[in-house]
Amino acid sequence: MAKIASVGSNTPKNRAMRFLVTLFIIALTVFMVSPFIWMVSAAFKKEADVMTTQLQLLPGYFYPNNFLKVLGFNSASDYHFIRSYANSIKVGVLATMVSVGSSVLAGYAFAKLRFPGSGALFILYLSQLMIPSQLTLIPRFVIFSEIGLTGTHWALILPKVVSVSSTFMMRQAFLSVPDELRESAKIDGAGEFRTFLQIMAPMAIPSIAAIATVQFMGSWNNYMDPLIFISNWRQWTLPLALNAFVGDTGRQYGLTMAACCMATIPVFVVFLSGQKFFLRGLTVGSVKG
Amino acid sequence: MALLFLLPSLMGLIFLSLLPMVISMVASLTDWEYTRGLGNWNYVGVKNFLDLFTDAWFIKSLKNTIFYTIGTVPIGIFIALVIASLIDNFCSDKIAGYVRIALYMPNICNVVAVSVIWMALYSTQGPITNMVRALGWEDPPRWLANYHWALPSVMVVAVWAKLGYNVFMYGAAMAALPRDLYEAADLDGASEVQKFRYLTIPLLQPTTFFLTITAIISSFQSFGYTNVMTKGGPIDATYTLVYYIYKTAFSYTKTGYASAIAVVLFAMLLVVTIIQWIHNNRDE
Questions:
Q1: Which residues of chain A have a pLDDT value below 50?
Q2: Which DSSP letter does residue A59 get?
Q3: What is the pLDDT of residue A74?
Q4: Residue B125: its chain A contacts at CB < 8 A?
C-alpha cells in the first residue's frame, strides 16, 4: 500500500519517529492477539498451572493430555469432537458448493443475459440485504420441520443457495469480461451453457475463489443456524460441540482452551493460505456498483 | 435461457427468503405457537405490537441493544481509524501486512471459541482480573457475573473481535487516497495531526460511513456472545433483541409474539438502510 504522508523523507528525526511508532504498533498487535497466545499456552498446561498470578508462557514440561482428552482418549466421556469436525467440513464444503454454484450462475445471468425484467429482479435481490435473517428464521424452521429437514445438515446447506453478496460480486466479475469473447464462442457454435462453462466461468476464477473462501468461513463459523436446526449430537457442527464441551467441563480451563485451539487453528491456517482471496472478497462488498 | 441460470437462486429467494418473510409478517398478527404447525393460528390484530410497549423484558432488550450499539460502534471505528492511519504512515509495507493479518485473526474465529476464550480471561483468577488487581484495583467485579459490568464486558469482546476488520477496510481505503494532497499539505508545513484531522478524516468519510452503517446493522443483530457467555444474564443484564426473539420463539414457543419483535427489528434496520440509501444517492 502506498505511503500518503511526508515521513518518507529520510531525516534522522523522521526515522526515529517511524521506529517508535512501528514499535508501538507491534506492541499493540501482540497485545491484541494475546488472548490467542494465552489460549495456546493454557492448552499445554496442567490445570493447577493455568490460572496463576505470574505470567508463564510455557510450562517446564510437555503436557498434551488436554488435547487427547478433547479427542476422547484417556477420558471417561466422549465429546464427539472428531465427528463434529467431520460434520463441519462436510457442511462447509457442500454449503460452499451450493452457494458458489448458484451465485455464479445468477451473477452470469444478471451480467450477460438480456431478459425482460432483469433490472427489477436484480433490485429485488439487492433488497434482500435489508432483511435480517431473524425475520425469516422462525418460518424457515417451521417449513424445514414440515418437510423433515430439521435435524439434518440440509437445513444448514440449502439456505446458502441464495447469497446476495456473492451474486452481486459475480455479476461485477462477469461485467468486466468482454462481450466479444462470448460472441466469438457463439460463432464457433458453442451453446449458451457451454460458452458459460468453458469460456466465461474460467475468466472469473479469482472472484469465484474469493466468494468460496468467504462462504466456507461463514459456514464454518455459523452458530445460530446449527443451534436452532440441529439437536442430535450426531449432526453437531464444531461450534455446537465446543459449546457443549464447555458446558460439561466448565472451569477446567486447560481443557476448554485445548478445545478452542482445535476449533480455531485450522481456520487460521485456511485463512493464512487463502487470505489474498478472502480479503479481496471483503472490499468488493463495500464499493458501490 | 436466463431463467435456467437463475433457477437455483430464484427458488431459494422465493422459498427461503420471501415466503418466510411474508409468513413472519402474518404470524406477527396472530397468537401462533410453532408447535401447532403452520397456519394453525388465530388473528389477534396488533395486540402483539401493543403488548411490546408494556413488556419489561422487551424494553430492557431494546435498551441493551441500543447501549451496545452506541458503546461499540463509534469507539471501535475511531480506534481502527487511528491504528490504520498510524500503520499506513509509519510502518514499512511488510510490517503493515503482518500487522493487518494478525489483527484480523479474531474476526475469522467462530463466536463460540471467542466467547470461551474470553470467559476464561474474565474468570475470577483469570489474566484480566489479575492484571486489574496488579494495577491497584484490589477488589475487581466478577465481570460477566456482575449485573452492571456484564454488558460492558461483552462489548469489550465485540470491539476486540471487530477491530481487525475495520483496520483492514481503512487500510484498503487509504491506499487509494490522492497523494498529491498530502504533498501539498507538507509544503504548507502542516503537522501530522493537522493532516489527520483535515485530510485523512474527511477523505475517508465514505469508508467511515459504510463501516458505521454495517456495524449498526450487525450490532442490532448481536446474539452469539451473549448466548455463550452470559445467557442474557445476570437476570436481564445482557438480553439483546435477537436473544429475546430466540428465547421467545424457541424456549417459550410464543412464535407470533417473537415474529412481532422480529418485524420491529426489521423496521428499525429498514430505517438505517434507507438513511444509507439516501446518503449514497446524494453523493452521486
A1: 1-7, 286-289
A2: -
A3: 67
A4: 51-52
Question: Cα B267 to the chain's mean position, in Å?
Answer: 17
Supply angle C-alpha B172, B174, B177, rounded to 5.
125
Q: How far apart are CA A82 and CA B32, in angstroms?
A: 39
What is the least distance, in Å, from the CA of B191 to any CA of chain A?
10
Query: Which is it for the CA torsion A66, A67, A73, A76, positive or negative?
Result: positive
Residue A226: asked if its preceding bond is cis (omega within 30°), the reply is no
Sign of CA dihedral A63, A67, A71, A72: positive
Write out the three cell numbers for B215: 456495524
Across the interface, do A271 and B108 touch by the CB < 8 Å criterion?
Answer: yes
Q: Are B102 and A33 in contact (CB under 8 A)?
A: yes
A-chain CB neighbours of B179 within 8 Å are 2-4
Is A102 close to B186, i.e. CB distance below 8 A? no
ipTM field: 0.85
Residues in chain B where the model's pLDDT stays below 50: none
Residue where the block lists cell 487460521: A268
The class of domain B51-283 in CATH terms is mainly alpha
The burial of A31, by beta-carbon neighbours within 10 Å (0-12 exposed, 13-18 middle, 19 or more buried), is given as exposed
Please give the domain boundaries of chain A with CATH numbers for all domains: 11-63 (no CATH), 81-241+258-284 (1.10.3720.10)
